[in-house]
Specification:
Blueprint (H helix, E strand, L loop, with lengths): L46 E3 L2 E4 L3 H13 L4 E5 L15 E2 L9 H20 L10 E5 L2 H17 L7 E3 L2 H7 L12 E5 L3 E2 L2 H13 L4 E5 L2 E8 L2 E8 L8 E5 L2 E4 L5 H8 L2 H7 L4 E11 L13 E4 L8 E3 L2 E3 L5 E9 L6 E9 L8 H14 L9 E12 L5 E4 L6 E5 L5 H17 L1
Parallel strand pairs: 1-12, 2-3, 2-13, 3-9, 5-15, 13-22
Antiparallel strand pairs: 4-8, 5-7, 6-7, 10-11, 11-12, 14-19, 14-20, 15-18, 16-17, 18-19, 21-22
The chain binds flavin-adenine dinucleotide.
């Protein structure tokens, strides 16, 4: 374990004593319990104290912050190395809140998504700054075999959903086009479809901003942007805060945030942090536990609305997208590890009417630059499905790139055993927007335990 304050392990970069004369967590005021009111007053200009510190400001971190503020009287600080919101995968997310492409056999992910879908709807019903576009989901089978699989999927999904919440199998191209007229000119093979009216979507970026603004209204919330969390402070086997590089603090160059709980919500970067903080087997366990899976999403302005209210009636996705989700077959975890893939997806933003098309997947390094091959492949696929919308007059407004935090075992949410008070909430791959509410629920329960 690398310790700060109580004596750093060899090789650990510790802020010089003159810059940080009092990092020893022993010197903190003791609090009677977790539920005690937080102490927000900075002990020094570069040292602050809260109950919980969250590393990262993606949707997972912000939903946890939101729930801590709503459900407890703890104070919370969000620390983000970028200068603003949506710097990670969250900024690229398409926004599907879907059940239809999930496997009910993977009971945990299924119920987390179901809970997430419901919670986003509740939030939107209670607060006008959040919206869920309840436009339903449409999956497309592009081969006869996929059509057979889709029919079986509809039966399985209906078995797992409440009786009033039904998916429908669309047995041929005609029935698909009737549901989704934007596909009428499609030159892609469409053999069948499936739809679930209760599925919906959010605008990931707008929702993240709304979530942040809501957190900011609480006096128990603090945020630090442009601050990179580097060290975990550990004392007596317990997490006691973090040290961040903070170039905006000219006098100190770093900031110490003391806290009785630290939750790593750093998306694809989470296991790099944890493996550097933990020694021996504990650290090794985290190496590559969560890896970046780069994804591209294109935002387009489409002039051709053809007199319809909406460009798309539903969110659309090729049914082969399901292969990216972990599913259970004969009690074995099955996950697709293709190095490169583009699967057609399309949604319409209910905020500005733009068309969002995607998406690519590339397992690799932490490269967040645009891969022109992925952009071309996404455009090519979308033109085949939606030729009347993408007739050449469309305008590319934005190319979004995000690193999905991929974990071969699904999201990793809860305490990190090696250090008490240390938690992780990461590894949500292509489902973090959907799973953020249930993730927050689990972390808050763990904090209060
Ligand atoms: C193209 C694409 C489409 C997607 N579509 C959907 C969808 O339709 N539905 C859905 O549910 N999900 C979707 N996702 C997945 C979803 O976006 C992610 O699962 C989710 O955003 C992950 O959120 P996060 O908070 O864990 O990570 P991130 O959003 O990546 O946030 C992590 C943050 O941690 C910060 N950070 C890292 N290291 C440090 C450090 N040392 N100190 C301080 N800060 C640090 C990063 O800068 C980053 O801002 C999509 C993703 C992509 C890429």
């Amino acid at each position: 374990m690398k310790r700060l304050g109580a004596g750093a392990a060899p090789g650990t970069r510790v802020p010089p004593a003159t810059r940080n004369p009092n990092p020893n967590p022993n010197n903190r005021r003791r609090r009677p319990s977790w539920r005690g009111v937080g102490h927000l007053a900075p002990a020094r200009s570069h040292e602050v104290e809260v109950d919980v510190v969250l590393v990262g400001s993606g949707i997972i971190s912000l939903f946890i912050a939101h729930d801590i503020l709503e459900k407890t009287d703890l104070s919370v600080a969000v620390v983000e190395r970028a200068d603003g919101l949506c710097a990670g995968a969250t900024g690229a997310g398409q926004g599907y809140l879907w059940q239809l492409h999930r496997d009910p056999m993977n009971a945990d992910a299924w119920s987390m998504a179901l809970q997430g879908r419901a919670r986003w709807r509740e939030l939107a019903a209670a607060d006008a700054s959040f919206t869920v576009d309840q436009c339903g989901s449409l999956l497309l089978a592009t081969t006869p075999e996929e059509g057979v699989e889709l029919e079986a999927r509809v039966a399985a999904v209906n078995d797992a959903l409440p009786i009033e919440d039904r998916a429908t199998f669309l047995p041929d191209r005609e029935s698909v086009v009737k549901e989704e007229p934007s596909l009428s000119d499609s030159v892609a093979d469409i053999f069948a479809g499936a739809m679930l009216p209760s599925d919906g979507q959010i605008d990931g970026q707008a929702t993240t901003r709304a979530m942040f603004r809501k957190c900011e209204r609480s006096p128990r919330f603090q945020s630090y942007f442009g601050s990179t969390v580097e060290h975990l402070i550990v004392h007596g086997g317990a997490a006691k805060g973090v040290v961040c590089a903070d170039p905006t603090d000219r006098a100190n160059g770093s900031k110490t945030i003391l806290a009785d709980a630290v939750c790593v919500c750093a998306g694809a970067w989470s296991s790099t942090l944890l493996s550097s903080w933990l020694d021996g087997d504990d650290g090794d366990r985290w190496r590559d536990a969560i890896v970046p899976r780069r994804g591209h999403l294109l935002k387009l302005e489409v002039g051709q609305r053809r007199g319809r209210q909406r460009l798309l009636n539903h969110g659309i996705m090729e049914s082969s997208y399901s292969k990216h989700y972990i599913s259970l077959r004969d009690n074995h975890c099955v996950v697709n590890h293709d190095a490169y893939d583009v699967t057609f997806t399309a949604t319409e933003s209910d905020i500005d009417g733009a068309l969002l098309i995607g998406s690519s997947r590339e397992l690799g390094d932490f490269d967040q630059t645009v891969n022109s091959r992925a952009v071309d492949d996404i455009m090519r696929a979308a033109r085949r499905y939606l030729p009347s919308l993408l007739d050449g007059s469309e305008v590319l407004l934005e190319t979004r790139v995000g690193l999905r935090p991929f974990s071969a075992t699904g999201p990793i949410v809860g305490p990190v055993e090696a250090v008490s008070g240390l938690f992780v909430a990461a590894g949500h791959e292509g489902s973090g927007l959907t799973l953020a509410p249930s993730t927050a629920d689990r972390i808050v329960s763990s904090l209060l335990r």
